[in-house]
What does this fold into?
Amino acid sequence: MARKRAPIDLPAVDALFTSQSEREGAALEGVAEVKLVLIDPFPDHPFHVKDDEEMERLAESIGENGVLVPLTVRASDADRYELVSGHRRKRAAELAGLESVPCIVRAMTDEEATIAMVDSNLQRETILPSERAFAYSMRLEAMKRQGRRTDLTCAQVAHKSDGRKSRDILAEELGVSKDKVQRFIRLTFLSPELLALVDEGRMKMLPAVEVSFLTAEEQEHLLDAIRAQACTPSHAQALKMKRYSKEGALTSALVRSIMEEEKPNQIEQFKIPKRSIARFFKPSATKDEIESRIVRALELLEQAEARRDRQGGA
It folds into this structure.
């Protein structure tokens, strides 16, 4: 059973694992022990909590030293709490057999809690594309809801009074480009099976973004083709499917036909060192000109050999 402890200040080492706002909040509100059975997970929490080797090590550490970095929670129903940050620490504490954990209890709106949850988890070293996608989406929607309450007369909802879009502000706060934010959010429109291929690294980001514009039925057709051919679409193939989808003409048969097309990276390449053939070409010759001349030379050679064979057989 975990030793019950009174509210304490965060030790200096915890500064390595918490944000400035969390440390300030802890100093202001203090730390209280809360029973694990009273803490509910954050609704639609997009970050996975896995019982892997890393979790096992964390559980062992917590079993020996306790939870050094308090969880952040907010009151929900009577005598219950909603976990804002610390899902991995909570799971590790459960595995370690603890009954309660130190928590910072804060009063937060839904929007504030969502933004705090996303920001705290984006500090992880490893984040799957799907986790980042839904985290960005949740944070953006929370920012938009905040904007609606503060600027009800604005047709183009803004998060701040300067009129900028929430998406632009989100990109700035995260330190990434607006295009990157948009690309990740588009991934949330993929079916779970296709999104899993992105997480596994089997489907690249750019084609995945284009595929996200397909309807649910069209994505199922694509998934069938991927399983049948054991390959994922290239960017060019994804763009082609998106174009046919927009025209309402993307059938299951067309998806299979597009997926059967040879990808550039699947075409076998034959390379000749440039120094071996440089004397046959002008220094200004382009790659296409060199390729065309080589092919023409081989055709002439083939014709000469055919004539020789005919003459030899006469």
